[in-house]
Amino acid sequence: MDSPSSSSSVPSSVLIVGSGVFGLSTAWALCKNPLFKDTTITLVDRQTFPTPDGASIDTSRIIRPDYASPPYTRLASRAQNLWRTTFAPEHYHETGLCLVGAGKQLNYVNASLANVQALATDNVEVCKDGEDIKRVTGTSNASGEAGYVNWSSGWADAEGAMIWLRKEVEAYSRVKFVTSTVSKLLIDHATSVVSGVTLSTNPPTTLTASLTILAAGAWSASLLDLRGICKATGQAIAYMPISPAEEASLRNRPTLLNLSNGLFMIPPSRGLLKIARHGHGYANPTTIRHPESEDPNETITVSLPYTAIDDPSQQIAPEAWADCRQFLTHIHPSLSTPTRPFTKSKICWYTDTRDGDFLISYHPKYKGLFVATGGSGHGFKFLPVIGDSILECVLGETPDDFKGKWDWPMTRVPEDEWEGDGSRGGPMGLILSEEMSKARASKL
Ligand SMILES: Cc1cc2nc3c(=O)[nH]c(=O)nc-3n(C[C@H](O)[C@H](O)[C@H](O)COP(=O)(O)OP(=O)(O)OC[C@H]3O[C@@H](n4cnc5c(N)ncnc54)[C@H](O)[C@@H]3O)c2cc1C
Ligand SMILES: *[C@@H]1O[C@H](CO)[C@@H](O)[C@H](O)[C@H]1NC(C)=O
Ligand SMILES: *[C@@H]1O[C@H](CO)[C@@H](O)[C@H](O)[C@H]1NC(C)=O
Ligand SMILES: *[C@@H]1O[C@H](CO)[C@@H](O)[C@H](O)[C@H]1NC(C)=O
Ligand SMILES: *[C@@H]1O[C@H](CO)[C@@H](O)[C@H](O)[C@H]1NC(C)=O
Ligand SMILES: *[C@@H]1O[C@H](CO)[C@@H](O)[C@H](O)[C@H]1NC(C)=O
């Protein structure tokens, strides 16, 4: 593996593909870090900012340090201190997070709780039963399980925070922003060197750099063979307009995340209540040209995002509508009346890895190529710090906490053997096109 270990290997030019959490925070870190003061920086995204279908743009994202894995707890605590102070603080709201579960999922809840308590926390309340959960979350029904609420967790307006960061980056006047779709990496197969990308302009044009950082989120698997390493999984979100009075009554309550079915509700904002599912998600197997093959006819089949950009009429599938509706009916029956439909929905794409660890690493084969992705549905909270961590890895100084976790995996593991991070609930093995065709059938 070609991992430079000193500042002598600071690249003269960096091209970042993708302007989500991983890409934009890397651009910011490059601007701030004096080692890279002479490096030219280009950031290319297929959409104008803020990317309407990117994983990083939404009304809200949970900011929590309570992981079942201590390294992430430590990094998230650092990030959270910045959210509380200097990083887009007007977009951060510390109203708590109530993690509940039933059965097997209580293992994850209990492990997180042990970590949080090891950090000498004083603001954690154990919910030993449904009555406790109802009391802290203000819901009318939450029977049967246990959990805890950490009043020091919060949530952020994800789009607001990304726009805040974009302005910070623009203020350095160092980054050249390009809006164009990357069609492929510029790979020299004789030397195994990546020297930039080809854009899908007509005629095709290129952007070259001494280091290309692939941070295209769930789309990364369309530009590099990530079979057995990363895959796109589609997650459901549903939104319902609510009145100012309803919003006021829920605004300061904790986020409620039920790890047994993956469903969660973040406190409403700007007149919208949001129910989403942190689940196993939809796979969307797609056959594409092999992104690394010299043979233009060679194909591979990988799960890739399919979004409202591909189909402007896209909604979540019927099973997801039903799941979100049942959850709302269960916790807030007074809001979930038949005359109050969800008016908007979205499928948001996680970049899942086998164990939920990020992939932040040089490519083992191609010189000049670095990959920063694998958010696995929990990357947003790290927005204030992940770019700095990515640069440490670029410099060959992977933080000790993450050695062996963020590295390119030694083997590719078939996706049906992935263990996951233990935090997902809800249905498994769903295929997007199958669930969507149920929608079409039911409309006929
Ligand atoms: C529904 C949902 C809920 C979540 N909840 C939480 C949460 O509560 N807390 C938390 O911490 N995290 C959460 N996450 C995870 C977090 O949002 C992601 O880990 C993070 O946003 C991933 O960022 P990214 O930069 O990898 O991907 P993205 O934001 O998707 O960015 C990738 C970018 O690459 C661009 N791109 C793709 N292909 C190309 C191409 N060929 N050419 C040019 N550009 C391209 C895209 O347009 C996009 O802008 C959630 C994610 C989802 C989807
Ligand atoms: C989790 O903790 C609760 C409360 O302490 C306990 O009752 C339960 O048995 C634990 N469950 C598991 C699966 O460890
Ligand atoms: C809950 O999470 C926070 C996150 O900041 C952690 O630092 C805190 O110690 C935990 N408990 C407390 C004090 O609320
Ligand atoms: C609470 O939930 C249980 C289980 O879903 C259900 O049987 C009961 O009717 C609900 N109670 C209310 C008040 O909605
Ligand atoms: C959480 O999910 C479990 C399993 O579906 C369910 O029994 C429980 O009632 C749910 N709790 C809440 C608060 O939704
Ligand atoms: C790819 O397929 C086309 C059509 O089948 C064929 O004409 C062409 O020779 C093939 N190219 C290679 C490199 O095999």
Automatic annotation (TrEMBL):
Keywords: FAD, Flavoprotein, Oxidoreductase
Domain FAD dependent oxidoreductase: 14-388
Top-rank lineage group of the source organism: Eukaryota
Region of interest: Disordered: 413-444
Pfam families: DAO
InterPro entries membership: FAD-dep_OxRdtase, FAD/NAD-bd_sf, MTOX
Family stated for the protein in its record: Belongs to the MSOX/MTOX family.
Protein name, as recorded: FAD dependent oxidoreductase
Species for this entry: Aaosphaeria arxii CBS 175.79
